[in-house]
Amino acid sequence: MYRFFSSILVLFFAASAFAQTDSTDTEGTSAILPKQQQLRIGFDISKPIFNALSKTKQSYEFTVDYCLPKEIYLVAEGGFGGANIDYADLKYSSSNTFFRVGIDKSMLQRLFPNDWDFLFVGIRYGVAIINRSEATYLTSDPVWGTTTGTIASKSFSGHWAELTAGLRVELFRGFFIRFVENFYSINLHFANCHPHL
Known about the structure:
Elements: E1 5-26, E2 29-44, H1 46-53, E3 57-68, E4 72-86, E5 90-106, E6 118-132, E7 135-141, E8 145-151, E9 154-172, E10 175-191
């Protein structure tokens, strides 16, 4: 299954720390370059905007990433949401929770130790659980007449892999904005009936 969507993440907290230093010697000149770690915690600011515009759906998403050596970032993402479908012929509600873990790799060389701007590609593995309430439906047919009924509530679970790419820019110290494109996704498994989850 292919999927394409965008999200905007504002990382509202970033903590940096200096670790051991490396010494490099180029033509007799010694330079001390600090190794740094940075933990960022953020949320998707596009979700509350879409929530305000939608009368039936709502969702929230958060992210945490940590800088590893060689410009690789360990990423954990999660979120939750739900929907209330109230059509003339179909009514039900649903809720969901998801988690994704993966890595991002910066495609740009850092210009200086505190340069945290980057253009990146990444990969994610995701897991989701969806709970749907009992659904009621109505069908009308000129021959068979009107039929109404209910469909029992169910829980669904699935997992998938996806490729991402994006850009992150530090607007001012400790405050970042990130643009992310999740441009390819493949469902690894989707179970449509797990009533005991």
